[in-house]
# Entry
Amino acid sequence: MTIFASIAPDLYLRDRAALRPEPADPSLSSHAADFAAEFAATLNRNEATARAAMTGEASIHQLVEALTSTQSAVETVAAVRDRVVEAYQEILRMPV
# Structure
């Protein structure tokens, strides 16, 4: 492979730009905040349904739906938490 002195700087600058890390996605933090807010809203809504069922204002069917929705939301958050912890532990195992 022959590289001429006139094109070497251009190739260097092109390759250097390709290796530059991309900036972090600012929307990632907003997605995490939206996820947390949606989780909290789901828990609050289902808790209100459970209270209404205890006072007779909501049916058993609504209570079962609320409990199932809460269980699903908690399992989802636990799975996300486990993946984050797993990724963090993997980063800690990387040699420096």
Observations:
- The CA atoms of residues 19 and 40 lie 40 Å apart.
